[in-house]
Amino acid sequence: MDLQRVYIQSQMYKPFMREEEALAIYEQACLALGMPYRPDDFPGFLTNINQALDQLNLSIRQEKHHSRDISYCLLINEEADELSKLATTLTPPQIGVFRTLVNKILDSPQGQLTSMDVLNTVPSTLMTKAVFEKTVLHKLVAEGWLEETTRGNYTVGIRTLVELKKFIEEGHPDLDRCLHCENVAIIKIECQTPDCNATYHRRCLEERKNRAGARLPCGKCQQPIMIPADVYSSTTGSSSRSSQTSGTKRARLEKPAGADEEEEEEDELMEEDDDKDEEPVAKQEPLTQRRTSTRAAAAAGTASRQRMSMGMDEDDLEPSQNKNKGKGKRAGGRRKAVVDDDDDDMDLD
């Protein structure tokens, strides 16, 4: 069908996308072809597409994020060698760095690495760490192979968990699995009951809690299990953060303790200074011009007081004096080096 062909072309152009983006493409294709759009038909639509793609060893999968309330649509090559799926994204040396990163993340107790740990994995002979961060790391996050949990901390992305599943399970057979969905749990929640080693994905626990109500029993020991604070920030866990960076602050290879807090305070102060700089400033006269004007005005005031004390007004001035009055004021301003406020009390004999 034309509808299937249009959608497949879009999914091949962008193999990794959020489910709402895939639904938007499906809706546009339906409207363009004059067909009714019903979101509930989308899963069945993908099932029909996968039947057509099966002979090509391709499939489109809907996958849930393990921690966040986000779902994705992925176009997967079922036949390709695991790491060769990255060949269109990275060079062979870069794929080697990615392999090392994945292994380090999976071996980490927290299931994630700091940005410094990530950048220190890059051999100096390959490229500079700054170039790797701007290009390779950004691309890996944007395409779903890696993702940020919080600013400057990285874990494996949903695309790695799905497309490189065999590579992960064969290389790390002892990884914990979620008791609910039985998939590998990298960033996990553990039951705190002694002697109970049950682990869960956050999203799986939250889905169970919605069904169970206030009391959430562990599926293994049946004791209440608490859901701790999310390790993901409110702005991560999506492909778009990945692509944007990431407002990620550039990692420093040598950073003293407490440097992150100091840098955040400096950033706030710099933002305040920028706001102040943007406020309009009244145009001021040059300092020399202001001084000259002040002296001229003071000299004119002194001359006026002298005439008043002598009982004279401007009509008593000679025409030549009246004509050149302005010049006299300026000349007087130049002759007087300093005019103090004490001149106001001057007495003339």
TrEMBL record:
Q: Which GO terms describe its biological process?
A: double-strand break repair via homologous recombination
Where does the protein principally reside? nucleus
Q: What reaction(s) does this enzyme catalyze?
A: S-ubiquitinyl-[E2 ubiquitin-conjugating enzyme]-L-cysteine + [acceptor protein]-L-lysine = [E2 ubiquitin-conjugating enzyme]-L-cysteine + N(6)-ubiquitinyl-[acceptor protein]-L-lysine
Q: Which organism is it from?
A: Catenaria anguillulae PL171
- Record's keyword terms, sorted: DNA damage, DNA recombination, DNA repair, Metal-binding, Nucleus, Transferase, Ubl conjugation pathway, Zinc, Zinc-finger
According to UniProt, the name of this protein is Non-structural maintenance of chromosomes element 1 homolog
Q: Which family does it belong to?
A: Belongs to the NSE1 family.
According to the UniProt entry, its GO molecular function terms are:
ubiquitin protein ligase activity; zinc ion binding
Q: What is its EC number?
A: 2.3.2.27
Where along the chain is composition biased (Low complexity)? 233-248, 289-307
Q: Does the keyword DNA damage apply?
A: yes
List the biased-composition ranges (Acidic residues).
Answer: 259-278, 340-349
Disordered: region residues: 231-349
Question: Superkingdom of this entry's organism?
Answer: Eukaryota
Its annotated compartments are: Nucleus
Which regions form coiled coils?
none
List, alphabetically, the Pfam families matched. Answer: SMC_Nse1
According to its UniProt entry, the function of this protein is described as:
Acts in a DNA repair pathway for removal of UV-induced DNA damage that is distinct from classical nucleotide excision repair and in repair of ionizing radiation damage. Functions in homologous recombination repair of DNA double strand breaks and in recovery of stalled replication forks.
Q: A single GO CC term, please?
A: nucleus
* Quaternary structure, from the entry: Component of the Smc5-Smc6 complex.
Annotated Basic residues bias = 324-336
